[in-house]
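Appendix B. One record, verbatim.
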Amino acid sequence: MTLLLLLPLFLQALAMFFDEFVFHRARGLPRWERLGHPLDTLTVAVCYGWLVSTPPTRAHAVAVYVVLCAFSCLFITKDEFVHARLCKPAEAWLHAVLFVLHPAVFLALGIIWMRGGNEWIPKAVLGATLAMMMYQLIYWSPRWHWGDK
């Protein structure tokens, strides 16, 4: 069962790899996206941080997680007005896939958290998410990409 729950995480990681290392590098990111993408990742890290720091048996723990996840799902759509102008159809399709996977990953990790016994999984995913955010902050910083759009 746990392996099945990890499938959306694997698919999301694969899609994120193509988005970041193929599409973003090919077109470059304007300043708004260079700032916005780490903020997107931060909203995800907050959700995972909740799982790592809060037992599911605590009062309102699940409700808080759902609210955090819903906020993240809405927040990540903020760049779509920019993407509609800048992205080619293949990248737009990949973003749609990521929007579908985003809540699926939250649901999968929520189930793992509520079932217990695999506490290392949310911790590992949180660590990977924070590493991705650091990469975004460093790689796309104006210091490295001062000549971009």
